[in-house]
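Usage

Read records sequentially. Each one opens with the input sequence:
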Amino acid sequence: MNAGPHLPVACPIAIPVAGGVWSSAAPVPLKRYETESWRVVVVCRPAGTEPAGGAAARGRAPGASARRRGPPRSAGFSLLGVIGVMAVMAILALALMPTELRQIDAAARQKETEALSVMVGGLRNHILDSRSLPGSGTVFSNVARNIGWQLASVQTNSRGNPRVYLVDPALRVGTNTVATLPFVQPFLGVTNVEGGRVMLVSSLGQPLPTTVTAPGTNAATVFEMLWNAGESVAPAGWTGGDWADVKIGRLSLLPMFTGHPAQSVCTDGTVLD
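and closes with the structure output:
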């Protein structure tokens, strides 16, 4: 192995060669070494010297230590930027929420009005088809069967509140009253009909108060109040929440009865003039 001029190195170097490992603890010559198994080029810098251009050529000030650079930062939002955007979105959501809620409530009220209209139509068809007036125990199943809805969809509204069936306390159909419903029309009909009105009442806000669901001795007053109430103005003394949430389907029975002259009938069914 041939050697050239010797210069001190800045740090030891270990190079594997044939027959062992060669160490640079001794001065390393600045030239090429060739062995049977290796061809090694060693370029060494004498201790304390700088390459051409000095430290500035490596991009740092003279005497400054080399520092490992981390991975380049990718462009994106900082944490404070994300928090700021979220805060703005929250403020906008709070500002728009009342409007959105009003629109949702308006849509639900319109849907309930339409549902009650369908149910009242089903009740009317049931009365005409069966020639009977149902009581509170069967009215919802009668309506559900007539309009093809699930019973639960007739009994409760979209907000989960139960609907209420109210009959005019002044109802008189022959000898039948509210207390004796259901009424089934006899073969020969009846001689008098009074107070023929019924209602389906629903609330999309809070459940209907007991003054409506169980009026007791005030039944006649409550019935008249609800029957005559307008859509936009709550009746006097109303305490059942927002009146706009209350929807009513009304049905008058009087047009469904047909009057005929009274006739005398024998016990065998023969009609006498």
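Summary fields computed downstream for this record:
- The radius of gyration is 48 Å.
- Residues 174 and 190 are 5 Å apart (CA to CA).
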